[in-house]
Amino acid sequence: MGDPRRPHLVVFTGAGISAESGIQTFRASDGLWADHPVEEVATPQAWQRDPGRVLRFYDQRRDQVRRARPNAAHKALAALEKHGFRVSIITQNIDDLHERAGSRHVLHLHGEILKARSSVDPRMHYPLPRGGIRLGDICDKGSQLRPDVVWFGESVPHFADACEIAAQADLLLVVGTSLAVMPAASLLEHAPLDAPCVLVDPEADALAPPGVARLGQTAGKGVPALVRHWRREGRLWLPETVVE
Is 14 found in the same domain as 46? Predict the structure, then answer.
């Protein structure tokens, strides 16, 4: 992750940061999820019942991700890394907006929509630079390809890696997540006891658990503001705009 002597910011991002780039959140009342019950498109049982429907749904989501562009929050985090800070991003999001903004150390807890994987061997991944997945597209073992996403009811394969990264934080920044999705929400428990933690979200006052500082702003406004403070001072700290 780079020189251990440099300040290490660990960032945990959720759907809220991508929503500002036009990607609908799971709980939104409109958009792609609204007419698709979870049980019908995002579970292993749905895949067994009707893989064609599941593939069509994720093709829609993939098109949406390709049209989206990184916003000010994504860009600010990438700029902080270029400024000499160690920045490790753990994201619940399946889009590639952090990478397109320029961040180099991104761990996707719930998979990556611009990849396919084997339905029999989860270690076998295939990039999808264009197009989608069709019935009959197979892996090298002859099995149908599926979206490289973690469905409801499946384990989170990279959670242990995420815990290890969180344990190395000098400051933990949480952006655009309700901290309600487990096991990801328990990442805060793995950060060092002396590492400050701040939640950036318009609903931060209601969402932040005890001991977590709050910045009640959108990701596109709050994250760049924090990054400006840190770049100016050359260290990670909680400015007066943050409520402790």
Answer: no
